[in-house]
Amino acid sequence: MGHRGDGDDQQGKRRGLMNLKDHIRQISDFPKPGIQFYDISTLLQHAEAWRETVDQMAEAVAVHKPERLIGIESRGFLVAAPLAMRLGCGFTMVRKQNKLPGKTIKHSYDLEYGTDTVEIQADAIEPGQRVVVVDDLLATGGTMAAAISLLRKVGADVRAAACIIELSFLAGRQGLDVPVTTLVTYDE
User: Fold this and answer.
1) How far is the C-alpha of 118 from the C-alpha of 104, rounded, in Å?
2) How far is 61 from 71, CA to CA, in rounded Å?
3) 25 is catalytic
4) Tens of pLDDT along 63-106?
5) Quick one: DSSP state of residue 93?
6) Is residue 5's pLDDT more than 90?
7) What is the CATH number of the domain that holds 92?
8) Which residues pair with 54 in a beta bridge?
9) How far apart are CA 133 and CA 89, in angstroms?
10) Number of structural domains, the chain?
11) Is 75 designated active site?
C-alpha cells in the first residue's frame, strides 16, 4: 500500500521539498495526560509549508482519480477542501451524528469504551462514484474504517485513504482495506 513516511522525508529534501515535520507542533498531555498531540495548526499558519502539504497530497491522491474527496470531521475538512479544489473534484463531509442537515445515512462503530456514530447526507454520493477519504491524522484507524464502511453503505467506490500524519506505532493502516498514503510518520 502507498506509504510516505520518514524515508520519504529524506527523498523530499533531495527533491528540494521542505520537511513538513518542522512545521507540526507536538503538545504533551493533550487532550489528557499521557497523550502526545500532533498539532497541524502550526502547519496551517505557515503558507509555504501548507502549500507544500497540499501539493504533496495532490500528487499522492491524483493517481486514484477521485471524483470526490471525503473529509472526516473536523481537521479532515481543512485538508480535503483545498485538495479537492486543486484536483478539480468535489468535496463531501463525513460528520459526527446530528451535525448535517437533511436526510442522512449513519454508521455506528465501536470505540475502546462505547460507540460513536458518523454520518453523511443521503444524497451526497452517487452509486459507483470514485472517492478518496482524507483526514489530518491516522492513529488507530477506527474513524477512518467507519467512514469507509459508511461510504460503501451509500454505494461509493472507495479507492484510497490519505492523511498528513500517521502514528505508525498504533498500526491504524492494518485495519484498512484500501491503499493508505501519509506524508509524515511518527514511530513513537
Assistant:
1) 10
2) 13
3) no
4) 999 999 999 999 999 999 999 999 999 999 999 999 999 999 99
5) E
6) no
7) 3.40.50.2020
8) none
9) 13
10) 1
11) yes
